[in-house]
Backbone:
């Protein structure tokens, strides 16, 4: 950039100009108008305008080299924007794009593409599906439309998105194992503890189809469902998942996915944590092999009589930081309201040795008592007002007290 001084009959004007090449020809454009000679003399309080202008331009050149020069945009309120021309673009996905490439998902897409004879860009589709799921969760059609607003445009069509879903489904195991391996290069994974649970998703259809089968819906909907089992690591980051038909028993879904983790993820030493619904004897035995272990919840109601009696006995309770034993019927609730008492013992059933740990909390006891009293009040109110509404109830329904 350099200084240009333009003289006219009325004034002498100072400009910052720059040489540019357009269509193979060199031309000059005005970068900034500094003002007239009179304006600068008044503004600079006696300093030489030419000397100041040259110094200012030198600073601009230095900033341009450092790519830190501030650019002033000028808008014309009278200029009309052309019709049907996209001028708004979404750039929020660029932050996700860095993570996408750090996990080498673009290379995973390339490896998958080599196995199939399709013409569409799997990497572009997979990345847009992931960005869309995070930024604006919606249908595949809506995600496709949203992707057209990204700064970087792609040329795939909606039909390619649906065709890509079939390929992604077939390569699900490869994608998961590759994703885990690549994640180790950018972050340490806490795989010493694994959490497993199941959920299901309903479909707005009336006939069963493939994996979409009638089963016990988590949302109590009378529609076919698909069941999903998910393993998370100790930090709550997803590790692996599988899909099963909606009429599959949850308990039999754990072992196949865990075997996949053992083989594909090369993990062998971990503790599996589940709820009582997934803690079948077969699952416990499976996780009692090698260097694996398990932690699961256990209903006291379903314990054998002598174990239930031991669990409900008021004496023999401990605190984690004391050797003293406590009788929970003699506790001062205000003093111990934030404490968690426990008792433990080893048991052996059908050749499987397990440690049974029972906990007791005053705070949780009061919480459950409050819920119970509230439900009893609602049940009594229903009896007094409209007893004809009584019907069979589930385990958490206040109607069970009638």
Residues:
């Amino acid at each position: 950039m350099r200084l240009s001084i333009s003289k006219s009959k009325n004034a002498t004007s100072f400009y910052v100009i720059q040489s540019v090449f357009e269509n193979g020809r060199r031309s000059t454009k005005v970068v900034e108008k500094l003002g007239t000679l009179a304006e600068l003399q008044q503004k600079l309080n006696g300093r030489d305008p030419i000397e100041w202008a040259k110094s200012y331009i030198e600073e601009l050149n230095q900033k341009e080299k450092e790519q830190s020069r501030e650019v002033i945009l000028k808008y014309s309120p009278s200029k009309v924007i052309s019709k049907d021309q996209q001028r708004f673009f979404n750039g929020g996905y660029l932050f996700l794009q860095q993570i996408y490439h750090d996990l080498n998902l673009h290379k995973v897409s390339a490896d998958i593409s080599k196995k199939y004879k399709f013409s569409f860009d799997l990497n572009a589709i997979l990345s847009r599906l992931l960005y869309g799921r995070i930024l604006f969760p919606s249908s595949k059609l809506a995600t496709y439309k949203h992707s057209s607003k990204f700064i970087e445009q792609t040329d795939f069509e909606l039909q390619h998105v649906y065709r890509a879903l079939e390929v992604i489904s077939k390569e699900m195991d490869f994608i998961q194992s590759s994703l885990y391996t690549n994640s180790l290069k950018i972050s340490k994974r806490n795989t010493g503890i694994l959490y497993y649970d199941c959920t299901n998703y309903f479909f707005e259809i009336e006939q069963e189809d493939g994996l979409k089968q009638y089963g016990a819906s988590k949302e109590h909907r009378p529609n076919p469902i698909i069941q999903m089992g998910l393993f998370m690591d100790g930090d709550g980051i997803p590790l692996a998942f599988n899909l099963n038909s909606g009429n599959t028993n949850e308990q039999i879904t754990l072992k196949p996915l865990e075997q996949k983790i053992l083989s594909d993820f090369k993990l062998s030493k971990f503790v599996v944590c589940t709820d009582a619904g997934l803690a079948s004897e077969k699952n416990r035995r499976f996780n009692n092999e090698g260097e694996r272990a398990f932690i699961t919840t256990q209903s006291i109601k379903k314990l054998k009589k002598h174990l239930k009696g031991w669990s409900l006995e008021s004496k023999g309770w401990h605190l984690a930081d004391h050797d003293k034993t406590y009788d929970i019927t003699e506790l001062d609730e205000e003093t111990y309201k934030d404490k968690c008492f426990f008792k433990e013992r080893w048991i052996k059933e059908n050749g499987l040795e397990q440690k049974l740990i029972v906990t007791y909390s005053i705070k949780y006891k009061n919480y459950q008592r409050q819920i119970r009293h509230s439900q009893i009040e609602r049940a009594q109110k229903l009896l007094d007002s409209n007893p004809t509404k009584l019907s069979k109830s589930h385990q958490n329904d206040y109607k069970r007290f009638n």
About this structure: Residues 362-385 form the longest helix (24 residues).
